[in-house]
Request: fold
Amino acid sequence: MSDRTRHAKPILIRGGRVLDPASDVDEPKDVLIEKGVIAALAKPGSLDADGADVIEAKKYYVTPGFIDMHVHLREPGYEYKETVATGCMSAVVGGVTSVACMANTNPVNDNAAVTQYIIEKAALAGLANVFPIGAVSVGLKGEQLSEFGEMAEAGIVAVSDDGRPIMDCNLMRRALEYARMFDFPVIAHEEDLALCEGGVMNEGITSMRLGLRGIPAPSESVMVARDIELARYTRGRLHVAHLSTAESVEMVRRGKADGIDVTAEATPHHFTLDETAVDDYNTNAKMYPPLRSRRDVEAVREGLADGTIDTIATDHAPHHRDEKGVQFDEAAKGIVGMETVLPLTLELVRQNVLTMRRMIESLTIAPARNLGLDRGTLAVGAAADVVIFDPEREWTLDASTLASKSNNTPFDGWRCQGKVTRTIVGGRSVWEDAQ
Amino acid sequence: MQTVARRHLLGLDGVSDEDILLLLDSAGSMKEVSARDVKKVPTLRGKTIINLFLEDSTRTRLSFEIAAKRLSADSINLSSRGSSLSKGETLADTARNLAAMAPDAIVIRHASPGAARLLADIIDCPIINAGDGAHEHPTQALLDLLTIREHKHEIDGLNVVIVGDILHSRVARSNIFGLLTLGAKVRVCGPPTLLPAEFAELGCELHYDLASAVKGADVVMMLRIQRERQGHNYFPTLDEYAHFFCLTEEILAEAASDVIILHPGPMNRGIEVASEVADGPYSVMMNQVANGVAMRMAVLYQLIVPGAGGIRGSEVTDRQVEPVVASGGRA
Reply:
């Protein structure tokens, strides 16, 4: 616990609807935060303010802060896209109190020195908690295992070559086996590069119409199948990143039913948009895996609803506008996501795809468990990472006002419903909505 | 949704039958100019047209150039070699610089699908797509439609077969959109590797057997097969491709007795078309080339001259992502 946290003034959140799936709480309660932890939960009106900062949360939800286990903070190396500090600001604006950041920086986070550098930058920023993810292979080259153990001691919570698949089957096997020693998951970006063959969007009617090279759905599912079988054999922990196809969802469902240690995430863009978002060569609709067919979107939603896909993560991928303002096939892939995760996910609740409880679970305790984090709950004694949000408030997204250093989002101009009003990290209020 | 009142020809996808017919009619009168002793009219005098050809082209570039000259426009040719694009300038920046010189139209050929659309999004000048990757090549399809109409009088109800590398062909796409809009029945034919099932969703009939595809056809359009596809296993060898998909006199016997054969060129003799067929009485390939000039004259005229009509279906609208969720959508 930092000094900042220990000396923070107590906070009393009054009258909000507390929803904490991890401790099975869903009712109006007052929450008292002291010394960086949840000090008490009690019937509304029963806790004494006694020198605490009081936050009125009537009509709002009070939940554990969101944990985004798939974020690209871009530092070191790509500070023109995002820095640890701007990424953390983007996080807390979106209600994300903990960020797990991917290793595809420059230099790559494949050694303890880079891990430490990121952690120090995060401490300086003093906003969200940052948990680095180490590279599976040195330089993300897919050849030689990086030093999982040294990085684990420095603070990584998982390993991943995200951005690139691990095409070498035997390297994946060894990674799953070796990672067992540290009890963290191998996070897999599932794309068979040979099948992708330079594709830039989902292969289907839209790619045929636009003349863009397609990425066939099996490029993902064949890799998911391979890695589930490797996880079965090695008894390693596999986490499948950004599931995008119906077949992949079904494979994870079967894998879980078979008792294999596999978890999975989906992004808001994959459960919100389909391939037609690319229709006018909108480079902000370009990402890997690509936006898929309507049928795939439905399957991802079903997977989230039944828990096959346990986690929602954003794959927040900032890119400079110069990297998006080019021909579609040359444009950078990925979009920013942390500031839109709440309204896009609430939409699933409004459409009765998810219960509010399931939604909060997928944003809090599920990713916490996947990464072995002692967070994602409002239980007394837990770290006071809290988000307060108004599920009803309507607002219009203006990409130019995002806290992220980049504004590459396909949701610019969207009417959103649901807004974070307050974000508390380690007992400190780090962001408050101006309204 | 706000419509930007600018006129472009980016493709035939979404262009109405009315607009296509207007362009074809307009080309009919342009043909007359090419038949004159003095092949020049002052229609576009004082207008500047930039031909931005960033991918190799002979026929299309020449055709646009001649079309501009016959209308008395000043046309300037730019290729990637020797331009700022070879110095690392982006396409968008090149376009902005060209736009600053106030051209009346830009004709663009580019290897990236959507390149013409990118220009239309950022600069204020009519854009004519002269081929963008595997996306569209609308003036080629228009000249094909013109050629077909000249021989068959009516496109509505015709059986048209397109044979070859459908997957990578911008000529096929533009023709499919135009032909379907005008009421033709379109069959597409090729090996399944080059003929994705999605083309059925676009409204085409799929054939893997050339003889059955050609049966009763009024029009057969052969596409160029690119030799480099062989290296990517779309088919084993060019020999085997030719064995199954070369249009021979024998196969042509299955077609209607007054069938016409089109090819956008450049042609691989003996691979997609047997020489006897290419040089035979049914071939209208040289009519296509001649019509290309008239068609491009018509397109330049319609897009540049105010009040000439324009092409409504290809107006560029504001970028918009249609939301899947109910509450999404633009404010």
About this structure: The first helix of chain B runs from residue 17 to 34. Residues 1-6, 312-331 of chain B have pLDDT under 50 and may be disordered. Residues 138-288 of chain B form a domain with the Rossmann fold fold (CATH 3.40.50.1370). Residues 26 and 255 of chain B are 31 Å apart (CA to CA).
